[in-house]
Amino acid sequence: MITGETITEDQINNLLKAAAARDQRTVGAADILAWYQDLNIARVRYADASEAVARYYAIHWVRQPPNQRFRLTSPLLIELVREIREARHVNADYLYEPVDGETGAEYAARLQAQLRAIGDGQPPAHTTAEIGMNPAGKEKLAELISGMAGRMPYPPEIAEVLDRARPAGSQITCPRCHAKPNAKCSNPVTGKAMNRLHDSRIAGWAILGETCPDCRAPIGEACRELGAPYKDHAHAARIEAAKQALRSAA
């Protein structure tokens, strides 16, 4: 059993039975185990997987020449689930509503939670279309866009100045050289101050402040890739999101 599973072996068995009813495959323990591992590593939920199975055989299977049809596999199902979730995001016409005084970490956590809910099929609280039809819609839309403006990416030249003024990662103690917050990192061998911060310090800082847009690791947990701890601890997109939040607070 995988810790924190998103789909159970019984549910996998149901998926494979549904596929077998369409393509007459035989299902064994090895099939169930392989699908169980693949779908949990990809964080696929049963409702999405069930819809993907139905869509594959109702739409894709029938378009294949009868003598060239291939059975649904777990990697293909994972791709179909991603397409389904992405389509929900596109169709939702979602608009994030900022909260006064929220920190970068709070913004990232709320945004990720709302996007995940939309991917799960829940309707968004706000859409640009609904706000636009409301008599006070234009004013409300302008207000929301204004609230998001502080979180939009800065031009490179401005971002560079802000990054020099408040180096990302300097807010915490370095796990490698043990430099205190706001102090420069030092070479562990020579003890001399460095012109940059250790990568592990920057990664640790991003982990404490942002959820990961790539692997969806929550705040406080290191990033993962293919079910295993990510070698660099934090994905580049997570570090960049944390830097953007820091710039916005400048």
What is the structural class? mainly alpha
Biggest sheet layout? 2 strands, antiparallel
Beta-strand residue percentage: under 5%
Oligomer: single chain
* Total beta strand runs: 2
Question: Roughly how many Å is the radius of gyration?
Answer: 23 Å
Report the helical percentage.
40-55%
| Mean pLDDT, all residues | 80
* Cα end-to-end separation: 45 Å
Number of distinct helices: 10
N-to-C order of helices and strands: HHHHHHHHHEEH
Strand order of the largest sheet: 1-2
Q: What are the defining features of this structure?
A:
single chain; 250 residues; mainly alpha; 3 domains; two-stranded antiparallel sheet; 10 helices; 52% helix; 2% strand
SSE blueprint and pairings:
Layout: H1 9-23, H2 29-41, H3 46-60, H4 74-92, H5 104-119, H6 128-133, H7 137-149, H8 156-165, H9 199-209, E1 224-225, E2 228-229, H10 236-248
Antiparallel strand pairs: 1-2
Describe the structure.
The protein has 250 residues and is mainly alpha-helical. It has three domains: 9-91; 104-149, no CATH class; 156-248, no CATH class. Helices cover 52% and strands 2% of the residues. It is built from ten helices and two strands; from the N terminus they run H-H-H-H-H-H-H-H-H-E-E-H. It has helices at 9-23, 29-41, 46-60, 74-92, 104-119, 128-133, 137-149, 156-165, 199-209, 236-248, and strands at 224-225, 228-229. It has a two-stranded antiparallel sheet with strand order 1-2. A hairpin with a 2-residue loop joins strand 1 (224-225) and strand 2. Helix 1 (9-23) runs parallel beside helix 3 and helix 9 (199-209) crosses helix 10 (236-248). It is elongated and about 70 Å long. The model is unreliable at 145-152 (pLDDT under 50).
